[in-house]
Structures are given as structure tokens and as C-alpha cells.
Design brief:
Length: 170
């Protein structure tokens, strides 16, 4: 989700705001992520389930699409923390599931593969930046959200193990 990498251009071109507003938007995003972390921590072991991760993962690109269409500052300040909240709920829940479900002897290898998304993030940012340059910042951001939802639903429909996550609980 390269939303945060394209946010400076979005702040300038769509919201018509200055760098200080970008800083406030990033702070709002940080608050959403922090609230997501606190939410997961406060739930303890009560909710660590596949369905929670899938729902949170689906909400993030949905909020990205809504955010891409916001031209008012107040909607941006509302939606950006929702994106970060959803992403943090997914990350904490998913990391817990991966570490819990991986066999002890493979956990290190599984986590190294799991972290590949961090290595591939610059590629996604490059592609969204190129789309923003070709089309518009709004189109690039909306496209990334639509693509995210399409990938989620395609994987859910075609990979049985993902569908079985609905019943996984730790």
C-alpha cells in the first residue's frame, strides 16, 4: 500500500495544502496505527483469527479508494487514520498467525519470506508514482486501492488455504 509514499503529492495537488498539513496527516496516520496496535494488544489472545486479518486487509484498500476521492481536508484527516488502523490490525494479527501456525523448525525461514513485502514496497511505490505521473495522483491512488481489493478477492476465491483462514483461531 504505497499510499504514504504518494501522500506528499496528494497533499499538494489534490488537497492544495502545504508541507505542515502533510505532517499533520502523517501524525493522524500514526495515531490510527497506534490505536490499531493498542486495540490488538488490549484484546490479548481473545481475537487472533484469520477472519479478522482478512476483514482488516479488505478494509484498508477500501479506505484507500475513499481517501483517493477526498478533496476536503477533514475527510483526509478521518480516512487516513482508518487506513493505518486497518493496516495495523492486519499486520499484528497476520504476524501472530504466521508465527503461531509455522512449525518451530521452520519459523525463521517462514518469517524471512513473510518479510519480503517490505523489500517489494519500493517497487509498488515506483509503479504508483509512475501512474500518478502518467494520469493523476487521484487515479493512481484509487487504482492501487482497486488493485488491492481485486487481488484480495482473487486470492480468497482461488486459494483454498486462504478461505480456510476464516476458521483459524489461535
Amino acid at each position: 500500500m504505497p499510499v504514504f509514499q504518494i501522500l506528499p503529492a496528494f497533499t499538494d495537488h489534490v488537497l492544495h495544502a502545504q508541507a505542515n498539513v502533510y505532517g499533520y496527516l502523517m501524525a493522524a496516520s500514526g495515531l490510527g496505527g497506534l490505536l490499531g496496535s493498542f486495540t490488538m494488544a488490549s484484546l490479548g489472545g481473545n481475537i487472533r483469527a484469520g477472519w479478522l486479518g482478512i476483514i482488516a486487509l479488505s478494509f484498508a484498500p477500501f479506505f484507500v479508494i475513499l481517501f483517493s476521492q477526498s478533496s476536503q481536508l477533514w475527510t483526509a484527516f478521518f480516512l487516513l487514520p482508518m487506513i493505518a488502523f486497518s493496516m495495523m490490525i492486519f499486520r499484528v494479527n497476520n504476524t501472530t498467525l504466521v508465527q503461531t501456525l509455522a512449525p518451530d523448525e521452520l519459523r525463521g525461514r517462514v518469517m524471512s519470506i513473510y518479510q519480503l513485502d517490505q523489500a517489494l514496497a519500493p517497487l509498488g511505490s515506483f509503479l504508483v508514482g509512475a501512474c500518478a505521473d502518467l494520469f493523476s495522483t487521484t487515479t493512481a491512488m484509487a487504482g492501487s486501492g482497486i488493485l488491492g481489493l481485486a487481488v484480495i478477492f482473487t486470492i480468497m476465491a482461488s486459494v483454498k488455504q486462504m478461505r480456510n483462514l476464516w476458521r483459524v483461531s489461535v
